[in-house]
Structure formats: structure tokens, C-alpha cells
Design goal:
- The protein has 89 residues and is an all-beta fold.
- The chain has no helices and six strands.
- It has strands at 22-29, 32-38, 49-52, 57-60, 72-73, 87-88.
- A three-stranded antiparallel beta sheet has the order 1-2-5, with no helix packed on it. Strands 4-3-6 form a three-stranded antiparallel beta sheet, with no helix packed on it.
- The radius of gyration is 20 Å and the shape is elongated.
Length: 89
């Protein structure tokens, strides 16, 4: 049997999620809806989802795909045309 190796250390990534987004709202600029929210301290990026009532699920609503560091975006309409839409960030 051989001797133990020298001890080493490693750091695990921070797995604590940041606080939830606040101030999520729709603003219309020249008739175009923008989703806007307040930046969250400690958030590396954001994911924006659109609820699809036809499937009961959520789909990526970011035009360039999730995740993104932006806090102001024009959502991609991934659900059927409707009178209202539901988003989560």
C-alpha cells in the first residue's frame, strides 16, 4: 500500500440563484411591445419565457435565444395570436 497523496482544495460554483426579477412590464414604443425589468444584483443572465395556452407550457421568448444579459427586449411571439400574452423572466 502506498502513502496518500498531498491534499488539494477546489471551490464549487455558487448554486444559490439570485433574487427574482422585479418590475417586469410591457411598454409600447411606436406600437411595438417591449418587455422591460429591473436588473438583479448577482444575475449573470436572464431567461424570458412566453406561456402557450395551447400546450400549457412555456417557450423561449428571446429573439436571440436564452439566456441574455439584456433587461429590455422585444419578445418573439411563439404562441398563437391572442388578445393577451403571459411572460416570465
Amino acid at each position: 500500500m502506498s502513502a496518500y497523496s498531498a491534499a488539494t482544495t477546489f471551490t464549487t460554483p455558487d448554486l444559490t440563484p439570485p433574487a427574482a426579477v422585479t418590475g417586469l412590464r410591457a411598454e409600447y414604443r411606436s406600437g411595438v411591445p417591449h418587455l422591460v425589468w429591473s436588473p438583479v444584483t448577482g444575475a449573470a443572465s436572464y431567461q424570458v419565457l412566453q406561456y402557450d395556452p395551447a400546450t400549457g407550457g412555456y417557450a423561449d421568448a428571446l429573439p436571440e435565444g436564452s439566456p441574455s444579459t439584456r433587461t429590455d427586449m422585444v419578445p418573439r411571439q411563439s404562441a398563437a395570436v391572442a388578445d393577451s400574452y403571459r411572460y416570465a423572466a
